[in-house]
Write a structure and sequence with these properties.
Helix content: 40-55%
Oligomer: single chain
Number of helices: 8
Number of strands: 5
Radius of gyration: 24 Å
Structural class: alpha/beta
Strand order of the largest sheet: 1-2-3-5-4
Strand content: 15-25%
Distance between the termini: 56 Å
Number of domains: 3
Largest sheet: 5 strands, mixed
Length: 229
């Protein structure tokens, strides 16, 4: 796929999407979410349902549906998963009282929260090595590479790409996209706070509260408060 400068500005680069099939029987979708949009749990279920439904052709029986695995990497901690003290969590459909009973093995969602990596190192050395490579590839040591042929190959490919000026520029543009988007979101938050302060000032004026008190409570200037009259 050809990537254009416009693509880098589009929202789709908030997520890296890779689809793959294992042994012609298991389909996977790998997502990399860089920005917290507060709705990733619902979005990831939507991605799974869409991919799962596509595994059945018209006229086929439901038993032919393929196991579908979503692997989600987030560059932030998910609020609803704060109490889970590990960076990899796996999700299935389970019965409320019989926790070991899974309704179907066709659904599996794996969530890897990258910021949790250093706090909760896994016992799985290969998994640790891959997550370390994704977070900070320059810190991968020879022991990690020598013990994992696939990781060694990934390191070689990365080094080859790193020497490509076009790929280097794309990586820089992606970084700028992330920084710009975070700045816009922060500005939106500040704007929301400003409107909230103005609304408070307006209500306090309606109650004939002294301007000095309103200034102290809202942090607005006298001129800004008088504009709310």
């Amino acid at each position: 796929m050809e990537i254009t400068p416009q693509d880098l500005k589009d929202d789709k680069f908030g997520i890296l999407d890779i689809r793959a099939e294992i042994n012609n029987s298991i389909q996977t979708n790998i997502e990399m979410q860089m920005l917290d949009k507060k709705d990733i749990e619902n979005r990831i279920m939507f991605y799974w349902s869409k991919l799962y439904s596509q595994s059945i052709k018209l006229g086929e029986k439901y038993i032919s549906a393929k196991k579908t695995i979503i692997i989600l990497f987030t560059d932030y901690e998910i609020k609803g998963l704060k109490k889970i003290e590990k960076y990899l969590s796996k999700w299935h459909i389970r019965e409320d009282e019989y926790k070991n009973m899974i309704l179907t093995k066709n659904l599996e969602i794996c969530i890897i929260e990258l910021p949790k990596y250093e706090k909760y190192i896994s016992k799985n050395k290969d998994l640790n090595a891959w997550v370390k490579f994704i977070r900070k590839p320059e810190e991968i040591n020879m022991e990690d590479i020598n013990n994992n042929r696939a990781l060694k190959k990934a390191k070689e490919v990365l080094e080859e790409i790193s020497g490509d000026k076009r790929e280097e520029e794309l990586a820089f543009q992606r970084l700028m996209y992330k920084m710009d988007k975070e700045a816009v979101e922060a500005a939106g938050y500040d704007k929301g706070r400003e409107k909230e302060r103005e609304e408070i000032a307006r209500k306090m004026l309606e109650q004939n509260i002294p301007i000095e008190t309103i200034i102290e409570c809202t942090g607005l200037t006298k001129e800004e408060i008088e504009e709310q009259k």
